[in-house]
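Most newcomers find our protein records easier to grasp once they have seen one. Nothing more is needed to start thinking about how sequence determines fold. Here is such a record, shown just as it appears in the course material:
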Amino acid sequence: MFKTLQTWAEFVKLSHTVFALPFALASMVVAARATRGWPGWRTFGLILAAMVCARTCAMAFNRIVDRKFDALNPRTAQRHLPAGKISLVSAWLLWGLSALGLIAASYFLKPICFYLSPVAIAIVCFYSLTKRFTDFTHIFLDVALALAPIGAWLAVKGEFGFASIAALSAKQISFGDWMGKAMTGFQPFVLALVVVFWLIGFDIIYALQDYEFDRTHGLHSIVVAWGPVNALRAAFLSHMIMCGLLLTFGLLCRFRVAYTIGWILIVGCLLLEHWIARRRNLHWVQNAFFRLNAVVSLAFLMVTVAEVAFRSGFRLQ
């Protein structure tokens, strides 16, 4: 049983959930500030289930539609479908069950989450097809993963708050109070942009491994279109924009010391990642892709929780 579960976890790269999940949980904590930073075990469990189901759905679809290319690529030839470790029917069944799981979890959260769940499924699956017709496939992937913090925010609040901000503008309230509420409304969108530019950067670095294969087999990416050197420059620029947006998010949330320390750590990790990526060695690229980016996402979650904990009285209820 354990070996079977391990096989399926490897099939959908469950360990890579460490990338998007911390941003979703950080968004959840910030959205739940009014309830002392914790939305309750029920909401937390449903957000976690929705995240795992969404990512499993996306990865299963990716493995299914890319199975022929994976079989031709020496780096991916031993993946489960081309190697015959998992049947195509089983993969489709996993995809269907995970999609239904996302819809079910959304149903028990907020109505808007349920209504938007089919849109989310379409977006997270569509990116797997984009490498066949656009050089900007990385952006489609990153927009799909950027749904995580927005979805978590909606799961807690059920809205972004712009309607209430507009209503307040007609009342006699101070400009400072109105600005504070307006800043709150923009927080999930800034965080989503953080995820987009962060993922653009490290997805380009990851795509360096398949540059020759993609170029010879007619697959599209920024690395193929611009070449490895220019693609790395684009990745670096994307990560610098991400750092600026991350700082903006902290300002919008009025975070202080803990967040600043975390921000410095994240910037250091990204700089190290680009230094490593320029070595153009497969082993080093894997380190840059997984380990450093796992540190980035987990560090962001920890400092965000710390800020909420010390300023909002975080506690489990």
Confidence is low (pLDDT under 50) at residues 313-317. The radius of gyration is 20 Å.
